[in-house]
């Protein structure tokens, strides 16, 4: 059962209360993406179209809601990695995962914070699971001769994260698909020359 499902099932509230919890979860996901994990309960309630009293009646705390939302999102990334491991072509699977990983980080301020900094949420287990899946992906590619053998798997998350960019650098505007262009360069650098 996911963290959000556990939150939804607490005390099995009435149907209208369940709807409010779902609205709060959707609003929290959007707010985490737009604002980050520092988003306030008032902002989440406003986005959900409910009052702050309803917020605190329906969820244990702002932190519990954010924990559930961010944890579930990280487990979605873990699921993407597991799908990539099922691809018969290790390199294709890795590239597909890399694009989805970077896109999610680029689109969600809060997920970028949670994956990149010490945030106030307790994410030890989801992050450990994600690290393990990335290790498996990289090692599978290395065993297939698709990724350079001299690249430790621990360097790969940093390399993937490095493709995200700001809106400008040295006076040049970033293209709309700048992260995709950067990702192509990084993947070319990771690719084994014999592949």
TrEMBL record:
The keyword Transcription applies. Residues 18-77 form the HTH tetR-type domain. InterPro entries: Homeodomain-like_sf, HTH-type_TetR-like_transc_reg, HTH_TetR, Tet_transcr_reg_TetR-rel_C_sf, TetR_SbtR-like_C. Pfam families: TetR_C_43 (PF21597), TetR_N (PF00440). Residues 40-59 bind DNA. Gene3D superfamilies: Tetracycline Repressor, domain 2. GO terms for molecular function: DNA-binding transcription factor activity; transcription cis-regulatory region binding. Keywords: DNA-binding, Transcription, Transcription regulation. This is TetR/AcrR family transcriptional regulator. It comes from Saccharopolyspora elongata. The lineage of its organism: Bacteria, Bacillati, Actinomycetota, Actinomycetes, Pseudonocardiales.
């Amino acid at each position: 059962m996911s963290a959000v499902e556990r939150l939804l099932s607490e005390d099995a509230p009435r149907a209208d209360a369940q709807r409010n919890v779902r609205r709060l979860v959707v609003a929290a996901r959007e707010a985490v993406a737009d604002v980050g994990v520092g988003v306030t309960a008032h902002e989440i309630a406003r986005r959900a179209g409910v009052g702050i009293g309803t917020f605190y009646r329906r969820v244990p705390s702002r932190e519990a809601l954010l924990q559930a939302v961010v944890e579930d999102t990280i487990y979605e990334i873990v699921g993407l990695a597991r799908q990539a491991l099922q691809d018969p072509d290790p390199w294709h699977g890795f590239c597909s995962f890399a694009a989805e990983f970077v896109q999610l980080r680029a689109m969600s301020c809060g997920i970028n914070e949670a994956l990149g900094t010490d945030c106030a949420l307790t994410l030890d287990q989801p992050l450990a699971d994600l690290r393990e899946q990335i290790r498996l992906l990289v090692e599978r590619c290395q065993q297939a001769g698709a990724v350079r053998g001299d690249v430790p798997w621990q360097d790969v998350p940093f390399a993937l994260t490095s493709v995200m960019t700001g809106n400008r650098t040295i006076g040049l505007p970033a293209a709309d698909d700048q992260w995709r262009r950067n990702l192509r360069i990084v993947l070319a650098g990771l690719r084994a020359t014999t592949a």
